[in-house]
Design goal:
Helix 10 links the parallel strand 12 (273-278) and strand 13. The chain has 3 domains: 2-96, 3-Layer(aba) Sandwich (Cobalt-precorrin-4 Transmethylase, domain 1); 99-196, Methyltransferase, Cobalt-precorrin-4 Transmethylase, Domain 2, CATH 3.30.950; 222-408, Rossmann fold. It starts with a strand and ends with a helix. It is of the alpha/beta class. Strands 13-12-11-14-15-19-16 form a 7-stranded mixed β-sheet, with helices on both faces. Helices cover 28% and strands 25% of the residues. It comes from Streptomyces canus. Pathway: Cofactor biosynthesis; adenosylcobalamin biosynthesis. Keywords: Cobalamin biosynthesis, Methyltransferase, S-adenosyl-L-methionine, Transferase. Residues 253-320 form the Methyltransferase domain.
C-alpha cells in the first residue's frame, strides 16, 4: 500500500509517516516533516526512477509514503500512481488544495471557477482561459508564473491574486494588476494565481461546478446583433464557419474584418478567447456593444489588417470576412500564423483562386463551398414564399501537422 499524504496548505499528520520505510516527495515537503530514522528518502525529480524504487518496496510489502501538495488527487501525483500501481494500492490523505485555500483567503466561492494548470505545460492555454473567463485559478510552474501570466494579460481588465507559500508562516496573498505582476520577481514559492474580472467574480448560483455550460443555441439570428444595413455574416454562413473554426475553451480566435462582431461573439460564447480586428470606428463600437449584450469578453483592435495583426498572439483559428483587393494578402498572413484553421467568407468569385492559393501555399488542406439558402418569408393571404439570400463562398484550410510541425507546436 502507498500512503499519499497532502501537505503544503497545512502540516500533514505525523502519524501517517509512522513505520514508513520509503518516503518520496519534493525537497520542501521532505524538509518540512520528521522522517523515521530508518526510512529511505527520495527527492522527486524525474518520476520514472522513483516509481521503479517504489515498485521494489511494494513487491517486498514494505511501507511507502508519498508527500504531495494540498490535494494530491487534484492535478497531482495520484493520477500517475494509479496508472502505475492501480487505485486499490493507494491510501490517499488529502488536505485543502491550494486552489480552495486561495479562494478562501479572498472570500470567494469557486464552484464556478475554471482551474487550469500551467505547471510543465504551455502557458498559452491558461492565458486564453483567463482572457475568456471571469474567474480562473492557474497552477503555476517555472517559466509559467505570475510575471509571464501578467505580461500576456496587460490588455485585459483583470486582477491577479498571487498566493504564495500557502499554509506556512511565510504565506502571502497579494492583489496586483497584470502590468504590476509582469515586472516582479515572484520567486519559487507561488502556490496558485487567481485571475479575476472583479465585476463578475461573485457569479450566479450554480448547479454544475466548473466552466459555464456551452450555449444551447449558436448561429444566432441576425436580429440578435446590432449591425449596419444588414452588413453581417448570415447565420447559415456563421453555422458552417463555427463548425470549421471549432472554438473552445483554451483557444484564441481572430475575427479579422469583424464588422458587427457576430462571429467573434459566437466564438466567445463557445468558450474561446477572441480578438476582433476592425478598421472602422463605428464598427469597433458595434462589436463592443454586441459583446456586452451577450456578456462575453472580446478584445477589439481598431486597425486595418494585415498591419494590425503584427502584435497579436498567434491564434488557433482565424475567421476572415469582408473583401477587397487586399484579401489574399490578409489570408496569407493569417495562414502563416494560425495553428489549426483559417475560414474565409467572401462574396466575390474573383477572390476565390487567390485565397485558395494563400491557404494551400501555407500548408493547409483547403476545401470550400458556395452557400446559397432561401428562407421562409410571409406573403399576404397567409401564404409563404422562399426568399433567397446572397450567395457566399466559404473556404477553409486545416493545418497539416506533419508539414508544419513547428507552427502546430
Amino acid at each position: 500500500m502507498i500512503t499519499v499524504v497532502g501537505t503544503g496548505t497545512g502540516a500533514p499528520p505525523q502519524e501517517c509517516l509512522a513505520g514508513a520505510e520509503l518516503v518520496v516527495g519534493g525537497r520542501r515537503h521532505l524538509d518540512a516533516v520528521r522522517l523515521p530514522e530508518a526510512a529511505e528518502r527520495i527527492v522527486l525529480g524525474p518520476l520514472a526512477p522513483a516509481l521503479d524504487t517504489m515498485a521494489e518496496y511494494l513487491e517486498k510489502e514494505r511501507r511507502v509514503v508519498v508527500l504531495a501538495s494540498g490535494d494530491p488527487g487534484f492535478f497531482g501525483i495520484v493520477r500517475v500512481l494509479a496508472e502505475r500501481f492501480g487505485p486499490a494500492a493507494l491510501d490517499v490523505r488529502p488536505q485543502v488544495s491550494s486552489v480552495a485555500a486561495a479562494f478562501a483567503r479572498v472570500g470567494l466561492s469557486w464552484d464556478d471557477a475554471v482551474v487550469v494548470s500551467a505547471h510543465g505545460r504551455d502557458l498559452r492555454t491558461a492565458v486564453n482561459v483567463c482572457r475568456a473567463r471571469p474567474k480562473v485559478a492557474v497552477l503555476t510552474g517555472p517559466g509559467a508564473g505570475p510575471a509571464e501570466l501578467g505580461a500576456a494579460l496587460t490588455a485585459h481588465t483583470r486582477v491577479l491574486v498571487v498566493a504564495s507559500a500557502l499554509g506556512t508562516d511565510d504565506e502571502r496573498v497579494e492583489r496586483v494588476t497584470p502590468a504590476e505582476a509582469a515586472v516582479r520577481d515572484w520567486g519559487t514559492a507561488v502556490s496558485v494565481v487567481l485571475c479575476l474580472d472583479e465585476s463578475r467574480a461573485l457569479g450566479a448560483v450554480r448547479t454544475v461546478a466548473g466552466p459555464a455550460a456551452p450555449p444551447v443555441r449558436w448561429a444566432l439570428e441576425e436580429g440578435e446583433f446590432t449591425h449596419r444595413d444588414s452588413m453581417i455574416t448570415k447565420f447559415e454562413v456563421r453555422a458552417l464557419a463555427l463548425a470549421r473554426l471549432g472554438p473552445r475553451l483554451g483557444d484564441l480566435v481572430w475575427d479579422v474584418g469583424a464588422g458587427s462582431g457576430s462571429v467573434a461573439v459566437e466564438c466567445a460564447r463557445l468558450g474561446a478567447a477572441v480578438v476582433a480586428v476592425e478598421k472602422t470606428p463605428d464598427g469597433v463600437e458595434r462589436i463592443r456593444a454586441n459583446a456586452a449584450a451577450h456578456e462575453v469578453d472580446v478584445r477589439v483592435v481598431h486597425g486595418s489588417a494585415p498591419d494590425a495583426l503584427a502584435e497579436l498572439d498567434d491564434p488557433d483559428a482565424v475567421f476572415v470576412g469582408g473583401g477587397g483587393r487586399e484579401l489574399p494578402d490578409i489570408v496569407a498572413v493569417c495562414a502563416r500564423r494560425a495553428r489549426r484553421s483559417v475560414v474565409v467568407a467572401m462574396a466575390a468569385l474573383d477572390r476565390v483562386p487567390a485565397v485558395r492559393a494563400a491557404l494551400t501555399d501555407a500548408g493547409f488542406d483547403c476545401d470550400g463551398v458556395l452557400l446559397q439558402s432561401s428562407r421562409l418569408a410571409p406573403l399576404p393571404g397567409d401564404v409563404t414564399r422562399l426568399a433567397a439570400t446572397n450567395p457566399v463562398f466559404l473556404l477553409w484550410g486545416a493545418r497539416n501537422p506533419v508539414s508544419h510541425e513547428g507552427v502546430a507546436q
